[in-house]
Amino acid sequence: MRKADLRRADLFASLVVFLVALPLCVGVAIASGVPAELGLVTGIVGGLVAGVLPGSSLQVSGPAAGLTVLVYEAVQTYGLRALGVLVLGAGLVQLTLGALRLGRWFRAVSVAVVQGMLAGIGLVLIAGQVYAMGDASAPASGLGKIAGLVSLPGDAHPVALAVGGATVVVLLLWPRWRRGARVVPAPLLAVALAAGVTGVFDLSVRRVEVRGLLDAVQPPSLADLGRLTEVGMLGTVVAFALIASAESLFSAAAVDRLHRGPRTDYDRELIAQGAGNAVCGALGALPMTAVIVRSAANVQAGAQTKVSRVLHGVWLLVFTVVVPGVLGIIPVAALAGLLVHAGCKLVPVREVRVLWRGHRGEVIVLGVTAVAIVVGNLFEGVLVGLALAVAKTAWDISHVQVETEDRGAAGMVVRVMGNATFLRLPKLLDALEALPHDRDVRLELGGLRHVDHACAAALERWAAARDHERVATITSTS
Question: Are 278 and 42 in contact (CB under 8 A)?
Fold first, then answer.
């Protein structure tokens, strides 16, 4: 492809991504409980900082729905002033992980845990934003939000609920006309129509509050930085860093499957994300991750190089500086409908069906992780999911097979093969204790690849007990 064609393709793709990113940046900010301008700042940094750094060539970064729940909890707990400190700390953690070349290890995280995390986030996001669609206040806890849905129809503002519902309908129907969706992205059309109808008919619904970019950006002070000594703050920093990194690197793997260009360097991409989050933190903005919706739009629009994602940041900056007042005509219910639609996409219904057919244990890990996030919080839910995934893996690899060969007068030969761990000790002892007590037994352990201390001690006790009746010989070739 000629350079002129490359520039033209990247320019067109950047405009498409800008139109997709604009309503999402604002919507994520509102759902996170922060000024709308901070979402745009994060989108700008995603383009101008992370966009120019090496890592993934076509992946686009910005504020993501996947961190909305965690950001909202952090802002409610520590205050808006602490957000910059948390994001800055997370960026520094990501930079450290990337410098230590640990980016590739994020691919070792159980896919079921990641999908469960996204499902839990999606459920909490949907439950919370349904209230915003009706201009109603949402309960604080995840379970409270779900339980309160029963009484929501009586509390919701009917006009706002209609605006939010119509937004979801547009998001579902517009992409079916592929030619139209290529020209005008569904998120932009849905929000623009909602804003237009609200303005023309002067509907009494809540609109986005515009504070101005300079008023919204609040860099952390030295006193704010001192709060990093608090245990709760440090835990939130780690949660921001790990979840943002996992989401970004899993997104990179998905984007790599969409194009034939250079593959992602995971360590460099982690450094790019860390640098972007450090800048976002210094500006007091939202945390940044790679976002699959924007990245897929970038690839599908024909982007060839990283120029497209950098330019999308330029367009966001121009919009924020030149026409920030446009945000004030956008109804909050429309943005809530946009996020309800995004939350539904986070729930991996198709993946659950596939896993159920071949890996039902993975479905259990996914489901427990999602439920733990809904019942508790995001960080605790992920820890529960990881612990369950590790326990499941330990169980799966602890396969012990016991084979018995009767050699008549020469006695019996019992061969134990596989991995003997405490998880399979009851099965192993049941098989050994079922052997005849009036026969000589030769126990061969050469087929064992691993024996933990619990199994080794149990085998020795079993052999010692057999010595009182018949002679048992234990042999091992490992």
Answer: no
